[in-house]
């Protein structure tokens, strides 16, 4: 057999070995020094030859399996410009492989350029090797048709990363920054060197971050996290809200340590990158070094502490005083004592934490805050932590934050949320290149979310809850984003409810005549209004108002019982009044309507308290109006008929029997349909 070159001979040898079921390899290849052409080569079976003996074999506890059996070989020599097979041995002294395992033989496995590109793209997209290999095998119809295995996939990625890190950690990082600057000259980075001229702290920001900070940099949250890179460096991110109330990134940093000097350098680098624009509000956790650096660099900003971290620390440090006498009495039954002690501790700690939470979120008056905080001090045995947190009360208490611009932010929850997203994509063994690539993926995901929100805001019209919305709401729906408009509309509705019933003026006549009870709409997943950050604030206030109303209702319970008895007597007197009296009351009730209206009576008070017929009819729903008017007609008619029968006149009795009898039976039937009690009808008859 003749071949033009060694590549053609090797391709034939591979094809033949695949059909027969054995692995092959190149034994040697000789080339001419003058022109580099192959003069001779030898292709052998993978089991050709014998493994040489090692003097340390007797020390090996787990020796490798033997794979060499001195099997066949093929030798080719060059003659007349082509390679000719000069020697061949086709017999094998070992078992051949099955056709189903062809894809597992080393000589048959190879990653092409296209497959290498797809493997790299899958790795950049965050797809794991196992999932990427499964996808590739499905694309070609199964793993037997794929030219490489999962181990080859992982080996290729490891080799690629080693090539990328050829310049070392620092060199690879600087190369990444230079590539970013080449893409967009607005990309900025800063490095801080230590005394040994080694890179300690790193800060970077791209063009999109600079632009977003210029628009939304009024409120900034900063926090650090660990376990995102191979060197275990603290990773810090500056984040904030955009116009859709979604997370935007303003900058990122890899730090060597969390000291005052490092934080000060980082915050100064942040301001330099954003042209000295200081945020109005800056949220951090309770780290002392970080707080000191914020006060020195961001002098014009209001520094807020994360309420979530404060509550976590409160749960650790706040405990109520224990009653030692009760402890001694309960030592008899140890099991019962442990259970009761656990429950009692939970209740005590919950009550103290509830008081502390109220001081943090509810009290808007400084005097009330000081009073409640002093009462809480008496419940706590150790006040060291409480005294330390009280010194910085201006940074977390609601009463000191009335004039602070926070956009509803009270914690570093945005930073914590972003850190969780980062930890999903990051691993602690990531080198610097893989760290930067996956961080870009996370940031790009946040920006894609903003684009989706922008698309939805242009496609979907905002929902106006009012049938006849005022021009202000219509204009706001066109200017604001859906989330901001939802919050604005909720506040507008609350303002209307607050000012809906004036206390110094009688209502207009059309309010009473057109009064209707609002039909209750069952809230579903589609009809339920999305809660905003302002709803949480109002929910806390409503809870507080309900607690205060409980005491007032308890004190007014006896007064309501007396008014209920008086109301029943008044209704009985009104029911037996004459038809003329009824008409007079309907025509002269405007003054009394104002009294009822101005008193802001609830629906329960309308039913139980003393009230005139006109006011009752005007303020109740359509169905109750119909019921009560029919009852009045029923009473009026029965009373008139009864008077006529009592006269003893034959003419009246005849008219009652002939003309009025049908109407009487009709009204009595109507009373039964309306649910008038039998005793009620019998008294009327």
Overview of the structural elements:
It is elongated and about 105 Å long. A seven-stranded mixed β-sheet has the order 6-7-10-9-8-11-12, sandwiched between helices. It has a five-stranded antiparallel β-sheet with strand order 1-5-4-3-2, covered by helices on one side. It folds into five domains: 2-107, no CATH class; 113-165, no CATH class; 184-306 and 411-450, Nucleotidyltransferase, domain 5, CATH 3.30.420; 308-322 and 343-390, no CATH class; 564-684, no CATH class. The protein has helices spanning 6-20, 113-124, 129-139, 150-164, 168-183, 207-216, 260-273, 288-297, 307-317, 324-329, 334-361, 366-379, 384-391, 413-425, 432-459, 471-479, 482-498, 509-513, 533-555, 557-575, 579-587, 590-598, 603-608, 613-619, 622-646, 650-673, 678-684, and strands at 2-3, 24-31, 38-45, 73-79, 82-88, 188-193, 199-205, 219-225, 235-241, 247-254, 281-284, 302-305. It has 685 residues and is of the alpha+beta class. The chain is built from 27 helices and twelve strands. Strand 2 and strand 3 (38-45) form a beta hairpin. The termini are far apart.
């Amino acid at each position: 057999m003749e071949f033009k070159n060694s590549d053609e001979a090797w391709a034939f040898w591979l094809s033949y070995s695949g059909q027969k079921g054995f692995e092959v390899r190149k034994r040697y290849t000789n080339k001419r020094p003058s022109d580099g052409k192959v003069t001779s080569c030898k292709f052998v079976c993978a089991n050709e030859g014998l493994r040489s003996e090692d003097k340390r074999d007797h020390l090996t506890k787990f020796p490798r399996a033997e794979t060499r059996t001195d099997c066949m070989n093929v030798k080719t020599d060059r003659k007349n410009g082509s390679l000719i097979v000069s020697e061949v041995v086709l017999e094998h002294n070992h078992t051949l492989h099955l056709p189903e395992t062809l894809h597992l033989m080393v000589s048959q496995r190879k990653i092409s350029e296209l497959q290498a590109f797809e493997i790299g793209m899958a790795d950049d997209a965050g797809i794991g090797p196992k999932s990427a290999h499964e996808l590739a095998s499905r694309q070609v119809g199964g793993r037997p048709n794929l030219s490489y295995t999962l181990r080859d996939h992982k080996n290729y990625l490891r080799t690629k990363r080693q090539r990328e890190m050829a310049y070392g950690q620092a060199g690879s990082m600087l190369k990444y920054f230079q590539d970013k600057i080449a893409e967009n000259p607005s990309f900025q980075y800063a490095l801080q060197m230590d005394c040994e001229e080694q890179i300690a702290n790193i800060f970077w920001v791209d063009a999109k971050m600079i632009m977003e900070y210029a628009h939304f940099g009024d409120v900034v949250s900063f926090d650090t996290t660990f376990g995102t890179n191979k060197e275990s460096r603290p990773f810090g991110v500056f984040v904030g809200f955009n116009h859709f109330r979604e997370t935007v990134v303003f900058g990122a940093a890899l730090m060597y340590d969390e000291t005052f000097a490092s934080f000060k350098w980082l915050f100064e680098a942040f301001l330099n990158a954003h042209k000295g624009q200081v945020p109005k509000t800056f949220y951090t956790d309770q780290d002392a070094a970080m707080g000191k650096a914020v006060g020195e660099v961001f002098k014009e900003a209001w520094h807020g502490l994360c309420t979530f971290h404060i509550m976590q620390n409160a749960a650790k440090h706040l405990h109520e005083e224990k009653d030692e006498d009760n402890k001694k009495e309960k030592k008899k039954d140890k099991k019962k004592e442990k259970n009761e002690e656990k429950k009692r501790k939970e209740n005590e700690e919950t009550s103290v934490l509830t008081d502390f939470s109220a001081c943090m979120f509810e009290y808007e008056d400084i005097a009330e805050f000081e009073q409640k905080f002093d009462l809480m001090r008496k419940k706590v045995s150790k006040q060291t932590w409480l005294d330390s947190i009280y010194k910085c009360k201006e940074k977390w208490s609601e009463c000191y934050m009335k004039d602070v611009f926070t956009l509803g932010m009270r914690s570093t929850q945005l930073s914590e949320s972003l850190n969780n997203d980062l930890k999903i994509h990051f691993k602690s063994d990531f080198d610097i290149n893989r760290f930067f690539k996956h961080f870009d993926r996370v940031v790009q995901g946040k920006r894609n979310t903003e684009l989706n929100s922008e698309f939805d805001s242009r496609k979907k019209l905002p929902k106006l809850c009012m049938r006849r919305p005022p021009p202000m709401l219509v204009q706001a729906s066109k200017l604001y984003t859906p989330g901001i408009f939802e919050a604005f509309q909720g506040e507008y509705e609350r303002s209307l409810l607050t000012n809906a019933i004036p206390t110094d003026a009688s209502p207009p006549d059309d309010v009473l005549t057109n009064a209707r009870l609002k039909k209750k709409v069952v809230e579903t997943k589609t009809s339920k209004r999305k809660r905003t950050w302002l709803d949480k604030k109002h929910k806390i206030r409503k809870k507080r108002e309900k607690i205060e109303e409980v005491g007032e209702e308890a004190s007014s319970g006896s007064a309501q019982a007396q008014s209920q008895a008086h109301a029943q007597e008044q209704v009985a007197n009104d029911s037996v009044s004459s038809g003329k009296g009824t008409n007079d009351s309907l025509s002269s009730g405007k003054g009394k309507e104002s009294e009822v209206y101005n008193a802001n009576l609830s629906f329960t008070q309308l039913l139980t308290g003393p009230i005139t017929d006109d006011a009752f009819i005007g303020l109740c729903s359509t169905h109750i109006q119909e019921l009560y008017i029919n009852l009045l007609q029923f009473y009026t008619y029965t009373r008139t008929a009864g008077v006529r029968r009592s006269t003893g006149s034959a003419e009246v009795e005849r008219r009652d029997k002939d003309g009025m009898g049908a109407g009487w039976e009709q009204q009595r039937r109507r009373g039964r349909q309306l649910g008038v009690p039998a005793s009620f009808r019998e008294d009327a008859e």
